[in-house]
Amino acid sequence: MIPSPKKMRVFKKSFWVTSKVLFQGDSALPTGLYEYIVGELDDFYAKAFKYIELDDDNVTTVAICLAPMHKKVPQDYYLLKVDPHEILMAAETPNGLIHATQTLKQHFWDTSFNQIDEYDTGADMRCLVIEDWPSYPWRGLHLDVSRHFFDYKFIRRYLDWMAALKLNKFHWHLSDDQGWRVESKRFPRLHEIGAWRKEQDGSRYGGFYTQRQIKLVLDYAAKRGIEVIPEIDIPGHAQAILAAYPELACFPKDFETLNVWGISEDILCAGKDSTISFLKDLFTEIAELFPGQYVHLGGDEAPKEHWKACPHCQKRIAKHQLANEEELQGWLVKTLAKHLQGLDKTVIGWDEILDGKIDSKPIVMAWRGDGIDAARLAHDNGNRYVICPNNKLYFDWKQSDFKDVPGAHGITRIRDVYGLDLSKYKFEHKKLFLGGQANLWTEYVPDNATAKDLVHDRLYALAEVFWSDPPDKDYEKFWRRSFELARFI
Ligand code: ACM
Ligand code: ZN
Asked: How far is the centre of ligand 2, averaged over its atoms, from the C-alpha of 287 (Å)?
């Protein structure tokens, strides 16, 4: 099972699974949750077994119970009991039940798949008791849909993998120099112009999600206990925005959505009031479209050459007595964060936002190098932080040094991900450390198959590190468990 549960006892007896298992949900289950759980399990058993008529004596049940536990339990705890005649899933939160569902599916795969009877009508599932809960509240996976576009159907497959491994934050990198990806009612040139680029061979590449497609994704994610974090990267990595609205730059010209990788010097002007009001309106639209708690405003890799030469930016620096251009970025982040907080959002930024003196409210994503310095800085400034160290959790890196494997930059093996030592990221205030996520940048990920190749195996390791936080990591055992599940997820 992956991620391995906190407590598990397996017994000799077994439960007879068939396509006719009955589901009993208590009336406290919110709309949709019961349907989701039954859908997941019923579909699964229906695929595994021929449909049979059973006499009443042989009926077995799965009881689904959302209620306070008899003892104090950690957040998103669940209990899963498989007895000979009944399976019980119990939790205090919907997420607990969602996780129990995934565990039950994996348990079936682990112990029953080879036990299916010769008529394909049923299988023995080992009895057990599991008590389980996540070690960290943030267990995320990111996807860059700007460098290459991945349609909303693929996003749902991506969410399936996450759900199966109890990952709960999907970080959707929706805008970068090479493409803007959201239908905007407020600023339609963003998707009309910014979503498209002319490739070096002259072909047109791009795409965007309609607001309806985004809602489909949000709904799909919510059913699986996954929060979606939209990222609109500003003030750098914003050339697609400038292609649509060049007047937002310090020195407007005819910008084109970029068709090469790298860092562009053309960034949004933080000096012009018109840029600030554009960004406020844009983030208002994003905040309304994505009803979750978080909005990510990027903040990474923004070269300040134009800000140094721009009269508007220099005027802003003088007016607010800022020390330099980094503090101007800090001012911009603070201004937008305040705006978003007014809309009840929690702001997230890459660790560069710490360079510009921010307050302790935004969540910081520590990505540079091994992320330890950034985590320390965030901690000392009182910010909550999520780690995604470049050298361990960038899943666009190759998985091995074999010739022709997909990926770029360096090599991060499954073993490296599994070996990530979280104790290095924990300081005095342990609660500030929310957890971690893997990032998939897609410069060198042209299609769905490559994305799957890069994410898939390392995702098991990521999930186990941040859900189980195993006290004694045994890589060989982990690898065997993940091998058994490889066809399942
Ligand atoms: C990043 O990798 N530029 C956050
Ligand atoms: Zn400027």
From this structure: 25
